[in-house]
Amino acid sequence: MKDDDLRVLFGKRITQLRKEKGLSQDKLAWNGDMSRSFIGDVERGSRNPTLTNICKLADALGVKKAELFNLIDSAEIHTS
User: Fold this and answer.
1) DSSP per position, 11-79
2) I need a labelling partner for 36 at 20 to 30 A (CA). Which of 3, 21, 29, 48 fits?
3) CATH code: domain of residue 61
4) What value, to the nearest 5°, has the Cα angle with vertex 25 and ends 24 and 26?
5) Which of 80, 63, 72 lies closest to 12 in space, CA to CA?
6) How many domains, in total, are found in the chain?
7) Which of 24, 26, 34 is nearest to 56 (CA)?
8) Structural domain that includes position 65
9) Is the model's pLDDT at 80 over the cut of 70?
10) Nearest-5° angle of CA 14, CA 16, CA 45?
11) How confident is the model over 32-48, as pLDDT tens digits?
12) What is the pTM of this model?
């Protein structure tokens, strides 16, 4: 799987969790002490967030860090 694909899958997972929690991009950004544009970039897959920002995203979403990677794991299983 290419790096671009992983970023897109990760972004889709962030979007999915954000919507499940009923959060706007602005509210998620506020909760995680990040900019709204950064959240948008991550959700579109155009940013490759650092480990620190991945942890911030998980905390802002109120989920375990591992939950952010569930979609990626599922996609890899289906393409292997």
Assistant:
1) HHHHHHHHHHTT--HHHHHHHHT--HHHHHHHHHT-----HHHHHHHHHHHTS-GGGGGHHHHHHHHHH
2) 3
3) 1.10.260.40
4) 85
5) 72
6) 1
7) 34
8) 3-79
9) no
10) 45
11) 999 999 999 999 999 99
12) 0.85
